[in-house]
Amino acid sequence: MTAAPESPSAGPRGGTPLAVVAAEVAQVLEQVRPPDLDEAAAFLGERGGRWFFTGQGRSGLVARMAAMRVGHLGRAVHAVGEATAPAVGPGDHLVALSASGRTPLTLHLAGVAVEQGADLLVVTADATSPLAALAHRRLLLPTAASTQFGGSLFEQCALLVLDAVALRLSGADPEVHAAMQARHANLQ
């Protein structure tokens, strides 16, 4: 006698897949240290210089989404690797996302930015990684255990935490949101 196939609505831990994802994300977000959030907000709240964002794969997609939101806040932003991204230099800022903190290209780009005098914020799951060691500030997302594939949990949490930092910087102020809306893309 063979076992009945698992219901498509049942997740690996017995709940629905949506409930599993929500529970994992909630668990990680509860563990994010308030001082890390404060440092990230202070970093992204700095005025002056330009803002560069990088990450590889899906982390790179999250980095570009965060860049867009920081641009809405009025900063000069660039996604590393885009044709219009200028050279990084003193007074600039790099936000680098890597769950492992060992992604070769992200590690290389962060090293170049630091050598050129840029400040570095690293969003990672590994505080002991080489990328974290380069950072001026770190935002640790403890996402080691997950039933989801690959780095999904890290990417989900990185997006939510960076959006929360943007919300903190905007103060949920209607005037700030109006200015952000005016900067929102209209060629889409």
UniProtKB/TrEMBL annotation:
Keywords: Isomerase. It comes from the Bacteria. Residues 40-175 form the SIS domain. GO terms for biological process: carbohydrate derivative metabolic process. InterPro entries: PHI/rmpB, SIS_dom, SIS_dom_sf. GO terms for molecular function: carbohydrate derivative binding; isomerase activity. Belongs to the SIS family. PHI subfamily. This is 6-phospho-3-hexuloisomerase. It comes from Microlunatus sagamiharensis.
